[in-house]
Amino acid sequence: MPPVTENRADSQQGFATRAIHAGQEPDPQTGAVVPPIHQVSTFKQDGVGGLRGGYEYSRSANPTRTALEECLAALEGGLRALAFASGLAAEDTLLRTVLSPGDHVVLPDDAYGGTYRLFARVLQRWGVEHTAAHMPDATAVAAVIQPGRTKLVWVETPSNPLLGVSDIAALAAVAHAAGALLVVDNTFASPYLQQPLALGADVVVHSTTKYLGGHSDVVGGALVVSDAELAQQLVFHQNAMGAVPGPFDSWLVLRGAKTLAVRMDRHCENARAVVALLKDHPEVSQVFWPGLPEHDGHEVAARQMRDFGGMVSFRVRGGLDAALRVCAATRIFTLAESLGGVESLIEHPGKMTHASVAGSALEVPADLVRLSVGIEDIEDLLHDLEQALAAAKG
Ligand code: P1T
């Protein structure tokens, strides 16, 4: 396994330059300007232990995955990134690296349903306890910390699906005062809009399935850290647990990441226009988007994010059935789970992505609809939403 090295990207470069070049020098043998897909499981040794490029077996490390990991570390301003087969695989590896039976974690009261399910249905059986807290309120988080037992504070900001915004620096202070790690799931913002490590977070988690991949054609995950010792522990567990992405999936995420900056700008711009339509629409009772001045977390978001993102949720005045009718009526917004791709998606969190949190502190309103606003022509998106909202009345 190659040693953990500081990422080689020049941290002085701008974001878009790093996205296109970090970890992606032209291939030294052929000059190929894009890193090759090293579709290989094992590497010839020149005598036992004589590794040519530091690679021995692709679960431990693979050059295409290394390229992705170096790029992700550069984008988050971290020391080391690790790529995984999915966002949940990244989460599981992190949790079983840093937690032991008897430990306690603070979880958000708004988060991706699958993340909650991992804690409530899997880790709990291994003796890890959790308490859900309202993460935008750092005082409420401090109040549920169990001194000596709480090892980790987990936050999504913006959160899925209610777009809550939490103050990363404030939560880092609360977690660190208790000797706990602060983990930030940065999936909704992407590293282009928000850099949690610079704000004091210890670990950044990504579902690279979303904005980083950006084209709804790959499932992947990542962890990014600044601390060398934690990096070493994670590298060990990544190999020991084995939930790694293949070379082609690594290559797809890397290809997607190159255009993250321009895509995110357009996602944000389109979301802004979608919110303007929804806000005054008679069938809509509430709109969730951190860019709205009346949003509880607007000031924090304006401080810690570059822009407000492409995810928008709203409540439909007519309740559950009306919300389901809207979801069924769009023509350009595709009814599907997931988010962050170039195409616009619509979904009903209560019955889809967040069905697993029904009855828990994370249960979402039945009349809630979530949009992943894509980068199509905005006139077409607005027209589609207008006609779908007309279906709300039935
Ligand atoms: O799906 P996967 O790559 O395993 O990532 C899980 C995950 C982690 N964190 C956040 C904030 C997420 O939104 C997700 C996945 N979310 C969806 C599939 C969804 O539609 O919300």
Descriptive notes:
The chain has 394 residues and is an alpha/beta fold. The protein has 2 domains: 15-258, Aspartate Aminotransferase, domain 2 (3-Layer(aba) Sandwich), CATH 3.40.640.10; 260-393, Aspartate Aminotransferase, domain 1. Helices cover 35% and strands 15% of the residues. It is built from 13 helices and 12 strands. The strands form 2 sheets. The chain has a 7-stranded mixed β-sheet with strand order 1-7-6-5-4-2-3, sandwiched between helices. Helix 2 runs parallel beside helix 9. It is globular. It binds ligand P1T. Ligand P1T binds at residues 86-88, 112, 114-115, 156, 160, 185, 187-188, 207, 209, 219, 221, 337-339, 353.
Per-chain topology:
Blueprint (H helix, E strand, L loop, with lengths): L14 H7 L41 H14 L3 E5 L2 H12 L5 E5 L4 H10 L6 E5 L4 H7 L5 E7 L11 H10 L3 E5 L4 H4 L9 E5 L13 E5 L2 H14 L5 H11 L2 H20 L4 E5 L9 H7 L6 E6 L3 H10 L4 E2 L9 E3 L20 E5 L5 H12 L5
Helix pairs in contact: 1-2, 2-9, 3-8, 5-6, 10-13, 12-13
Give short descriptive properties of this protein:
Aspartate Aminotransferase, domain 1; 13 helices; Aspartate Aminotransferase, domain 2; binds ligand P1T; single chain; 394 residues
Our count of domains comes out at: 2
Q: From the helix content, strand content and strand pairing, which structural class follows?
A: alpha/beta
CATH class of the largest domain, named: Alpha Beta
- Going across the major beta sheet, what is the strand order? 1-7-6-5-4-2-3
Q: What is the rounded distance between the termini? A: 60 Å
Shape: globular
Under CATH, the topology of the largest domain is which? Aspartate Aminotransferase, domain 2
For the record, what is the CATH homologous superfamily label of the largest domain? Type I PLP-dependent aspartate aminotransferase-like (Major domain)
